[in-house]
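// run 5 | inverse folding | seed 20
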């Protein structure tokens, strides 16, 4: 008994050491960047696009918006590409073909959706980023976009007569027409007149000319229209500090930003637009870079994705993750904060060690109980 018992315990100890090492090693190697990429890749569907999250229900569908957001994340984080991970040109080409309306030239956001300017922008942008050739239908795509114009210079969501123009749809249409090579067919003076009609109070912009509700989001798109297409007009000169003051008024105590049109709570989406707008107009982020950076990092879920709202009601999504990564990139393009271990790594290691030690304890107790029982029988 005295010789056999130590031998059994030694074997149990050796096995426990092996299990501890095998469990801890892969856990400790997970950086925030790796976790994000694992999350994104987990949302991909073969010969299709990207789901909005890891959740799978009968109603879950792949969408152009999620696919565009996923590719934006991959483009920023720039991982090594291989045939099995992130490199999905063939699959996404099948997806784009399935949701295009080759008669009207518009794209649906999902297979059961309706052709819209927004979806057409996403499709053309995705095709360009992946090198997918869709030139055979480009004239129809351009016609769909041009037919969405309103006489006042703005663009609606589709060529339908009841589609009212908006700042955001105008931006999507202009970007898509630029990709299609048809931007020269747009009267930029009319576009400028429409954009100016949406400015309220001489500083911020509303979503439409008839609205009085100014927004950080719509102001971002208005500024982008100026920077990308209306660069010869000095209409925004002298307004940047007033814009910053408006953004500062939407700063939450922890570092996120809200938008008056969306709601009072800071969100990753509204924070992205606040950060991006500050960078585009050349002003500092209210509250400082570090406050906002830490607020964003605190939104990363244990599955690697970022959460728009508050868990457990809200879950990590591709769109929220795209806004988080985009905002972090606009704060600092080095993204050094993503090259550290995930915040849940230590707790995972501690849990793994505790589980193994409990298992070893049970093994030791069984061995001791066996020999005690054997001795009592003798």
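// decoded
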């Amino acid at each position: 008994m005295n010789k056999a018992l130590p031998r059994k315990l030694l074997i149990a100890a050796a096995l426990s050491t092996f299990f501890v090492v095998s469990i801890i090693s892969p856990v400790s190697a997970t950086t925030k960047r790796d976790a994000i990429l694992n999350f994104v890749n987990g949302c991909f569907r073969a010969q299709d696009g990207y789901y909005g999250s890891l959740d799978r229900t009968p109603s879950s569908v792949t969408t152009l918006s999620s696919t565009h957001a996923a590719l934006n994340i991959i483009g920023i984080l720039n991982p090594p590409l291989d045939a099995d991970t992130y490199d999905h040109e063939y699959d996404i080409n099948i997806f784009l073909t399935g949701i295009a309306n080759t008669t009207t030239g518009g794209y649906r956001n999902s297979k059961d959706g309706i052709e819209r300017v927004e979806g057409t922008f996403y499709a053309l942008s995705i095709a360009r980023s992946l090198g997918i050739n869709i030139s055979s239908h480009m004239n129809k795509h351009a016609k769909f976009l041009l037919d969405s114009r309103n006489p006042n210079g703005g663009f609606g969501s589709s060529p339908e007569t009841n589609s009212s123009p908006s700042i955001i749809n105008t931006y999507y249409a202009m970007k898509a027409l630029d990709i299609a090579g048809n931007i020269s067919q747009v009267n930029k003076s009319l576009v400028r007149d429409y954009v100016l009609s949406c400015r309220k109070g001489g500083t911020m912009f509303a979503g439409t000319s008839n609205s009085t509700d100014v927004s950080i989001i719509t102001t971002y798109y208005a500024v982008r229209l100026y920077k990308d297409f209306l660069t010869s007009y000095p209409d925004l000169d002298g307004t940047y500090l007033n814009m910053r003051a408006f953004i500062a008024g939407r700063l939450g105590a922890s570092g996120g930003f809200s938008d008056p049109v969306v709601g009072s709570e800071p969100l990753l989406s509204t924070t992205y637009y606040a950060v991006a707008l500050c960078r585009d107009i050349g002003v500092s982020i209210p509250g400082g870079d570090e406050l906002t950076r830490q607020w964003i990092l605190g939104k990363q879920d244990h599955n690697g994705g970022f959460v728009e709202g508050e868990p457990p009601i809200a879950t990590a999504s591709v769109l929220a993750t795209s806004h988080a990564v985009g905002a972090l990139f606009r704060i600092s393009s080095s993204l050094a904060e993503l090259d550290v271990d995930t915040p849940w790594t230590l707790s995972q290691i501690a849990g793994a060690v505790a589980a193994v030690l409990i298992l070893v304890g049970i093994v030791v107790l069984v061995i001791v109980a066996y020999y005690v029982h054997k001795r009592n029988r003798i």
